Amino acid sequence: MLDKVVIRHGDHLPETLLPLQRAFRRLQSELLEHMAKEDQVLFPFIVALEAGEPLPIADARRWIQSPIAAMEADHAEAGRALVFIRSVTDGFAPPEWACPTFRGLYYGLAQLEADMHLHVHLENNVLFPRAARLTSTAAGSAGAGV
């Protein structure tokens, strides 16, 4: 949708739409990488913790700090991108002359921001602290260690 709006209206609002497109593409790429790291590294470890499975890491409490810190750093970077996107779109307020696609784009960006705030809150304030707490109870069940 963003690419369509840029093609149609980019000449009218180059100071808005071109920086928005660059920021969105960068955010999209970073989020895809972030989710892959979560799915491949952190979440399987947390699932094992939740299930009470023996862990292949001798010091799970110390180990988990690194991926959690990386995820929180990614969250902070995404937050900065969303602040920029909100700013460049004037708070997701489309111009009065905006077509339905343009209006839908800004609505979708506002929804993305809201969804991201919820995602970050749940991970940073619920999931990650819970996982860190679980590592202390799992310490006695760790395997040979990596």
Give an overview in words.
With 146 residues, this protein is mainly alpha-helical. The chain has one domain. It is 78% helix and 0% strand. The chain is built from 4 helices and no strands. The chain has helices spanning 2-9, 14-51, 60-88, 100-138. Helix 1 packs antiparallel against helix 2 (14-51) and helix 3 (60-88) packs antiparallel against helix 4. It starts with a helix and ends in an 8-residue tail after the last helix. The model is unreliable at 140-146 (pLDDT under 50).
N-to-C SSE series?
Answer: HHHH
Structural class, by secondary structure, is mainly alpha
The tally of helices reads 4
Q: Structurally, how many domains make up the residues?
A: 1
Number of strands: 0
Gyration radius (Cα, Å) is 20 Å
Based on CA inertia axes, which overall geometry fits?
elongated
The major pleated sheet works out as: none
**Unreliably modeled segments:** 140-146
End-to-end C-alpha gap: 45 Å
Mean pLDDT: 91
Amount of helix: over 70%
Which range does the strand content fall in?
Answer: under 5%
